[in-house]
Design goal:
By secondary structure, the protein is mainly beta. Helix content is 8%, strand content 72%. It has a single domain, classed as Porin (Beta Barrel). Strands 1, 2, 3, 4, 5, 6, 7, 8, 9, 10 and 11 form an 11-stranded antiparallel β-sheet that branches.
Length: 234
């Protein structure tokens, strides 16, 4: 009987120990794994109506970091926000077999987004809990592209964002690794819109401006680490 009571007490303490991570007043501090990618490409294109062969060689690099912080305003409900900082850079060289002229193109794009969210956890086991998250994102992504031929002509296009936002919902699961650390994954459905203006300026001739509007549906998949900090750091 004594052993049974001790076992029940230990299980109760363990459950409280784990589930205290989502109590009112606790804090969430986490980061989605920043995506880092490097691509080296080499393409060759032929057409049925011409013997000319078109070749493009290039490489690109991108990286993003997505930290976030939230507070449990009530048991199992956290609200907060995050930022997403990313950078993209690419360089390519284009040529064709009918000409000695080559064209070198460069493009870089930094971006910054603000991301408020609300996350609701549901009953789970002593080792983890499923959740639903509402999120939104607003930010800007500028950039500049340049193109230069081996004959000396060149052009530059400057990107000037007007707005870029999206909102959606995600479902996920967090596996508690300890009292203060969890690993989570989620999949969602988002809708977004953006508007961007461009200024095209050639080295010779007259430049012009143009505007592009875009709407999109997409399915974001996220994995990351989440720290749970209790009241007064406990």
């Amino acid at each position: 009987m004594k052993k049974l009571l001790l076992s029940v007490l230990a299980l109760t303490i363990c459950s409280t120990f784990v589930f205290s991570q989502t109590k009112k007043g606790d804090k969430l501090v986490g980061v989605s794994f920043g995506s880092v990618s490097y691509t080296n490409s080499d393409s060759k294109t032929t057409y049925s109506n011409t013997p000319t062969i078109y070749k493009t060689e290039g490489n690109s690099f991108s990286i993003s970091v997505n930290p976030n912080v939230g507070w449990f305003v009530q048991d199992d409900l956290a609200v907060g926000g995050g930022v997403s900082v990313s950078f993209y850079n690419s360089k390519s060289t284009t040529s064709n077999s009918s000409s000695t002229t080559t064209t070198e193109s460069k493009y870089n794009q930094p971006s910054l987004y603000l991301s408020p969210f609300a996350r609701m956890y549901f009953s789970g086991s002593a080792s983890g809990k499923p959740f639903v998250q509402l999120n939104a994102q607003y930010g800007v992504a500028g950039g500049k592209s340049t193109s230069k031929t081996s004959t000396g002509s060149s052009s530059e296009t400057t990107t000037k964002p007007k707005y870029d936002y999206n909102a959606g919902v995600a479902v996920g699961y967090e596996q508690f690794l300890s009292k203060t650390l969890g690993f989570f994954f989620s999949i969602g459905f988002n809708y977004g819109k953006s508007k961007t203006s461009y200024e095209y300026r050639p080295s010779t001739g007259t430049g012009y401006d143009y505007t592009s509007e875009n709407s999109r549906f997409y399915i974001p998949v996220n994995v990351g680490l989440q720290a749970h900090i209790g009241k007064k750091g406990k």
